[in-house]
Amino acid sequence: MSNTPETPLLDQIRRPADLKGLSDAQLEQLTRELRAETISAVSVTGGHLGAGLGVVELTVALHAVFDTPRDKIIWDVGHQCYPHKILTERRDRIRTLRMKDGLSGFTKRSESPYDPFGAAHSSTSISAALGFAVARDLGGDVPEGLGDAIAVIGDGSMSAGMAYEAMNNAGALNKRMIVILNDNEMSIAPPVGAMSSYLSRLYSEAPLHELKAAAKGAVSLLPEPFREGAKRAKEMLKGMAVGGTLFEQLGFSYLGPIDGHDLDQLLPVLRTVKQRATGPILIHVLTKKGKGYGPAEQARDKGHATAKFNVVTGEQKKAPSNAPSYTSVFGDSLVAEAAADEKICAVTAAMPDGTGLNLFAERYPSRCFDVGIAEQHGVTFSAALAAGGMKPFCAMYSTFLQRGYDQVVHDVAIQRLPVRFAIDRAGLVGADGATHAGAFDVAFLANLPGFVVMAAADEAELRHMVATAAAYDDGPIAFRYPRGEGNGVEMPERGTPLEIGKGRIVARGNKVALLSFGTRLAETRKAAETLAAKGITPTIADARFAKPLDRDMILALAADHEALITIEEGAVGGFGSHVAQLLAEEGVFDAGLKFRSMVLPDIFIDQASPADMYETAGMEAEQIAAKVLDVLGIAQIGAQRA
Ligand SMILES: Cc1ncc(C[n+]2csc(CCOP(=O)(O)OP(=O)(O)O)c2C)c(N)n1
Ligand SMILES: CC(=O)[C@@H](O)[C@H](O)COP(=O)(O)O
Ligand SMILES: [Mg+2]
C-alpha cells in the first residue's frame, strides 16, 4: 500500500481488512489521521467526542489484530464508537452522525455488521461478549461467522452491577473471551466509588520495589512480546505483584495495566492474546479521555459531549437560550426546598450535571449522593433513605430509570416509601435517538398502586411539582419533564405544593376538550390557535396528574364536550390509557363520547431533532389540530398524518 503525503492512509481504508497490510508504523500514522477525522466530523455534527478520542489507538489496534465482523467488538455504551465507524465502511456518512436519517451516535445492529450488538445504555458489553462466546462454542450460526468476542468497557461503566454479574458468569463458564477495561479515570463526571479507587490502586499504589523484583524474576516467563524489557514486564506484572486482582479472583486472566495510546504495547498484547487466550481474559488499558485535542483534554468533562465547534479554537456553537432548562429549574428548585428542610437529600446515578444535581451537590455536599452508574442500587438506596426518615429525591433520566424498575416496584412501591422520583429527559430527546427516549415511565409507574405520577407542562409547573414532592410524605411520587429549555414563562420565586390529583382548566371552549399531560400543552395551545381560525374553540386542560387522575375534571370535560382528546409524550399504556379506563368504567363511552388518545406510536423513533421526532410521532400542533378536525368529522384539505 502506498503512503505519500498526497494520499493519506485513511483514504485507502474502507474496511478493517484494509488494515491488514499496514506496518506498525503505518498503523501509527493511521491513528493520527483517524483522530483528526474524528475531531473534524464531530465539529460539524456535535456529539460524544472525548470518549472516541481516547480509544483511537485501541480502535486501530483491535481492527488491525482481530478480524471483524467475524470477531465481535462490543463497545460498551457505544458513545466511543465514532473512530470504529470511520474504519468500518461508514466514513462517507460520518458527518451525518446523530442526524435525522444519518448514522446513529451509538453502535446499532441494523446499521452495520461491524456493530454486532447495539448499545447506548452502559455496562452490557461483558454479558453480550459472553453470549457471543457461548453461541460460538455451541455452534451458533450468523452470516459473518462467530470468532472472538471482545468487550470494551470503560471504568465508569464498570460501576454497574451488570458488569459483575457478567464476569461472575464468565469466570465460571471459562469461555475464551476478552474484556478490555478502558480506564480513563472518568465517567461523564469524575468517577466515584470504591471500584474506581481500586482500579487506580492497581497502577498507582503498587510498591515499586516489589514490582521491580517481580519483573526481574519473571521476565522469562512472559510471552514472547512481553520479553522486551523489565519496564514493560513490570507493567504487566503489577496485578501479580499486588497479590492478584479482583478480576483474577473472578476467574479472568488479568493483563496490564498498559498504555492505551501506545501501539507498541497494544499491538503485541492483543496479538499474544489472540494467539494464546483460552479462557476469559481482562486487559487493563489506561487512556486519556479527549486525548489529542486540547480543548477536550482541558474541558471539565474531557469533551464527553459537545455541540458543533470550531476546530481551531474549540469554541462551541450553541444556540442562544431563551429560557432556563428544565434541568436547571429542577436543580435550583430542589436547592430552595432543601434550604427549608434538612431531611431533603438527593441521589444521582453518575449524572450529576445532566440531572442538575451538581447545583445541589455544591450547596449540600453531605446530602447529595452520586452512586455511579448503578440505577438499581440508586433506587433501593433511596428507598432505604426514605425508610430511615429522610426525603430522598432520586433524580434519573427516564430511560435510565428503566434499569431500576424492579427496585421501583419491590423496594419503593410495595413498601409505599416516599421516594421522590425526578424524571428528566421525559419524552423524545433528539440526537441520542430511540435508546434515550423517555417513552415508558408513565406507563410503568402509573400502574403501580399508591404511586403519584405528575408531568410538568412548563418550567413554572416543574417548580411547583418539586415543592409538591417535597411536601408529600404518604408514598412514592414522581414528576417528569423533558430535555431542553422551558417556555420562558414567568417563574414563581418558590414552588407551591399542588393539590394531589387536581388538574387545571387552561382555556374554556366547547365541542372538543384537549386534555394535555406534560409539555405538549404548548403545542396544544398552538393547535387551538389554528382551530380558532376555523371557528373551533377547544377547551384546554392540563391534567398535571396521571395518577391519581382528576376524576371530577375529566368526567366534567367528558360530559360537557362532544369529543375528548388526551395528549402526552409517552407510549401507550400511560395517561391516556388511564383516562380511557376511567371513562369506560364510568360508562361515558356508552353515552357517545368521542375519545382519542395521542401517544407516541408503537415504533422506536430514530434520532432527529425533537420537533422532527414529534412530527414522526404525529404530535406537533398541526397534527393535534388535524386530530380535532378528524374527530369532529370536519373535512380537511391536505390532511396531515395524525
Ligand atoms: C445505564 C446508563 N446509565 C447512565 C448512562 C449515561 N452515561 C453514558 S456514558 C457514561 C459514562 C461512562 O463512563 P465510562 O464507561 O468510563 O466511559 P468513558 O466515557 O469514560 O469513555 C454515562 C454515565 C448510560 N449510558 N447508561
Ligand atoms: C452516552 C450517554 O448516555 C449520555 O452521554 C447521554 O448522551 C447524555 O444525554 P444528555 O445530553 O441528554 O445529557
Ligand atoms: Mg471512563
Biggest sheet descriptor: 7 strands, mixed
Strand order of the largest sheet: 7-6-8-9-11-10-15
The count of DSSP E runs of length 2 or more, i.e. the number of strands, is 17
Distance between the termini: 55 Å
CATH topology of the largest domain: Rossmann fold
Class inferred from helices and paired strands:
alpha/beta
Instruction: Determine the fraction of residues in helical runs and give it as a percent range.
Output: 25-40%
Which CATH class of the largest domain applies here?
A: Alpha Beta
Q: Number of helix segments?
A: 24
Radius of gyration over all CA atoms, rounded: 27 Å
Name the average pLDDT: 93
Spans with pLDDT under 50 lasting ≥5 residues?
206-235, 237-243
Ligand inventory reads: thiamine diphosphate, 1-deoxy-D-xylulose-5-phosphate, magnesium ion
CATH superfamily of the largest domain: Thiamin diphosphate (ThDP)-binding fold, Pyr/PP domains
Strand content: 5-15%
Count of the domains = 3
**Per CATH, which architecture of the largest domain?**
3-Layer(aba) Sandwich
The shape is globular
